[in-house]
Amino acid sequence: xxHEELRAKAMQKNGVKAEYEALELEFHLLREMxxxxxxxxxxxxxxxxxxxxxxxIITEMESSLSSGNDKYSPSLAxxxxxxxxxxxxxxxxxxxx
Length: 97
Prior knowledge:
The protein is mainly α and 97 residues long. Helices cover 66% and strands 0% of the residues.
């Protein structure tokens, strides 16, 4: 079964779609982080060095965003450092529903 087929099947189960939608912001942020890190050609270790931290912090940050686990929820300051490490800047917006 392909990923999209599995996702479509899972979305039909009670509560799965609501949970998925509740985590969409985190998933979007993770996709953006991974994309910019890949485009910059950097590893988690290299990002950690640029941020002045250890690779485990980057691993935990990326994995917590992908799982929705609040064990390590990055602060705005940390996200800003990450953005700078991949030669970007951080933008945050409030958008009316």
